[in-house]
Amino acid sequence: MDDLVNLTARSRDAMATVVEGALTWLATSGLQIVLILIGAWVAMLVSRKLLNRVHKTIAGKHGDIERVKRADTLTGILGTVLWMLLFLAAGMMVLKEIGVDIAPILAVAGLGGLAIGFGAQNLVRDVITGFFLLAEDQIRVGDIIEAGGKSGEVMSLGLRTVRMRALDGTLHIIPNGNITTVSNMTKDYGYALANVGVAYREDTDQVFKVIEEVGADLRSDAEYGPSITDDMELHGITTFGDSAVVIRCRMKTQPGDQWHVLREFNRRLKKRFDALDIEIPFPHMTLYAGQTKQGDTPALPLSLDKAA
Fold first, then answer.
1. How many other C-beta atoms can be found within 10 angstroms of the C-beta atom of residue 264?
2. Contact 249, 234 (CB under 8 A)
3. Residue 241's pLDDT band (boundaries 50, 70, 90)?
4. In the chain, what is the greatest distance between 2 CA atoms, to the nearest angstrom?
């Protein structure tokens, strides 16, 4: 009977010790862990609201599909990175509170990250470059660009690659890390740039007038006019070529419309030149026999092959 009493007393003492230890832990480390988890949860809520605001800013108010897609991609990446950092930070703090030495874990994680970094340098470079391509809105789906030594229409834009379709139908897939320079030919607006060559015998003032008339007619056209946003700019004579005087002009157009406007301008200008007998020369060579000191021009010596 005394043994039973002693066992019961020892059990009560052990239970009291456990409860006291638990209360002590809850009042110290346990409370710290609860506060850490609450802080992480609050940080996630705040980051989610900030990401929603960023998404609305990038997407704009007009609901452009491409802007929305870009906003989804960017906020998704930012959200994943933020939540991973919060999870890792909260996990490390919790492990420290429960008495786990996190120094070896951090060392192993650092070595693992270093090894992965060496093995995936190109992938990391592609992702970082793709992120900035999206964030800075350098290119969008549907743009005509030149990048990575290739040119074509952008079909898709991701964090790792850009896919663009060339004029002949070839699909180019370019890793973002290989893109050092982007030439966007359909950003905001375009120019239909023409270099018109006429013969040296032509009156350039008359040619200027004809070019301006063709440009004005094209802008007033019901089909092509909406693509042209400004009057013809006549830059004047830019080059004295081997067989032509080159005159430069251009028309400001909607993005992507410059090529079909230029093709129609060339067609109309050729017809107008034909009607006015203005020569568009082809490459040729003029033979000059020279002059004597007295100013006489000798006959050009020509001979026929008797065998012919």
1. 17
2. yes
3. confident
4. 153
pLDDT at 105 over 80: no
The pLDDT mean for the chain works out to: 81
User: Phi, psi at residue 285, to the nearest 5°?
Assistant: -130, 135
Strands 171-175, 190-198: pairing kind = unpaired
pLDDT band at 245 (very low <50, low <70, confident <90, very high): very high
**Cα–Cα separations (whole angstroms), residue 190 to 57, 172, 185:** 27, 23, 7
Contact 144, 153 (CB under 8 A): yes
Burial 6-20 (b: 16+ CB within 10 A, else e): eeeeeeeeeeeeeee
Residues paired with residue 190 on neighbouring β-strands, in sequence order: 253
Rounded to whole angstroms, how far apart are CA atoms 92 and 103? 10
Q: What pTM value is reported for the model?
A: 0.64
Across the range 147-160, mean pLDDT stands at 86
Q: Which residues of 290-308 are buried (b: 16+ CB within 10 A; e: fewer)?
A: eeeeeeeeeeeeeeeeeee
- Structure tokens given for 287: 């033979």
CA 19 to chain centre: 63
Q: What are 203's two structure tokens?
A: 């009156």
Helix (H/G/I), strand (E/B), else coil: 10: helix
